[in-house]
Amino acid sequence: MTMGHGGNIIATAKQLGCRISELIDMSSNLTPFATASNLLDTLHARLDEIAYLPETNSASLCALFAAHYGLDRNQVLAGNGTTEYIYAIPAVAGVKRGLVVNPTYSDYLLASERVGLTADSFQLQAENDFQLDLYQLSRHLQGNELVFICNPNNPTGVLTPTVLLHEFIRAHRDTQFLIDETYLPFTGEKSLLELPIPENLYILRSFSKVYGIPGLRLGFLAASPANANRVYSKQRPWGVNRLAQLAGEHLIEHGERTIARVAEYIGKQRPAFVAELEKLPGIRVVPGSANFILICLTGEMRAEELRNSLLDHRIMIRNCASFAGLNDRYFRVSLKDEQSNRKCLAALQKLLTNQNTNQVKK
Questions:
Q1: 37-254 fold
Q2: Domain ranges in the chain?
Q3: Long-range interactions of 105-113: CB distance < 8 A, separation 24+
Q4: CB–CB of 294/332 below 8 Å?
Q5: In sequence order, which residues have a C-beta less than 8 Å from that of residue 100 and are 6 or more positions away?
Q6: Residue 256 — φ and ψ, nearest 5°?
Q7: d(Cα 138, Cα 261) in Å, to the nearest integer?
Q8: Nearest to 156 by CA among 31, 328, 46, 320
């Protein structure tokens, strides 16, 4: 089975015959900053702990996470990335169908299908800039379903205000909701974790993206005690390795400054980057709030051609044709450091201007 994930920098470096360090990976939605040096120092100092079994249920880590957000300890689980829970929740939610708000992360659909749920789609519209219309979504709800919402959404970057989402969930108690907040820390928006968690809500938070540690695989689930216990009953022991547990404990205690720094950077860089993009010929930028930007090609060029051309500049972008509801004109760019952003803009300007000139000559 082929899964639609971006950021395959190791395979791309092998394909191009170059070092990983030579590539600018703007296809993966990771933090624009390097992994914090104090985290690496902590892990290095405690590396000998890989000789011990990790805590079976990551109790210390979950207790810290719960205390940080004012939750009860029995509302929180830690797992091998949020992907573990994307696949686990449909199996225990006790619903008849999954409803995926598309275009979005492909694993929501795969997770529904894997446990035999009918998987339906609520399609966001390009003419509305892929904004989530909660009124229209309400009309598609039948009860006894699990709705997958990524907020802000991947790949569109569109953010639905947390308070509105919370009110909507509470108003539809016959429907279960899985809200994936993987990219929320990049926006500065309040989390659903800071509001009362109703019985029909599962919240996912990932440490991979905002802290730049995708290789450690660390994610959290917060839910009502009863729902958390249902998921826990299906969870395998030792799902979080010892280094990931140590990293999580360190980041919960010391990572708030990192999140604030990242959110401030994205808040400044995104508008500036978008302003330069909008000067380029042959594209339309989808308005959003996340650390990545969805762009539609309006000329003859297609996303795969642009992706391959940018590889000549050692720049990776994400062709978004694999996302349900998008076509081969859409691509996604994730913000990195200022120098990398400038290189990407320069390469895009060169390629799109040449394409537009050739188009005019025809």
A1: Aspartate Aminotransferase; domain 2 (3.40.640)
A2: 9-30+257-361, 37-254
A3: 105/150, 105/154, 105/180, 106/3, 106/4, 106/5, 106/322, 106/323, 106/324, 107/3, 107/83, 108/148, 108/150, 108/178, 109/324, 110/1, 110/3, 111/86, 111/87, 112/146, 112/148
A4: yes
A5: 108, 109, 112, 119, 120, 121, 122, 147, 148, 324
A6: -60, -35
A7: 36
A8: 320
Residue type, 321: A
**Tokens 């995708």 correspond to what residue?**
214
Task: Specify the pairing of strand 97-102 against strand 118-123.
Answer: parallel
H or E stretch including 62? helix 59-69
For residue range 128-142, list pLDDT tens digits in order: 999 999 999 999 999
Residue 150's H or E segment, with its range, is strand 145-150
173 phi and psi, to 5 degrees? -75, -15
Tokens 């996470």 sit at which residue? 65
| CATH number 3.50.50.100 is the correct assignment for the domain at 9-30+257-361 | no
The whole-number average pLDDT for the span 3-26 is 81
> Three-state SS for 144?
coil
**pTM above threshold 0.90:** yes
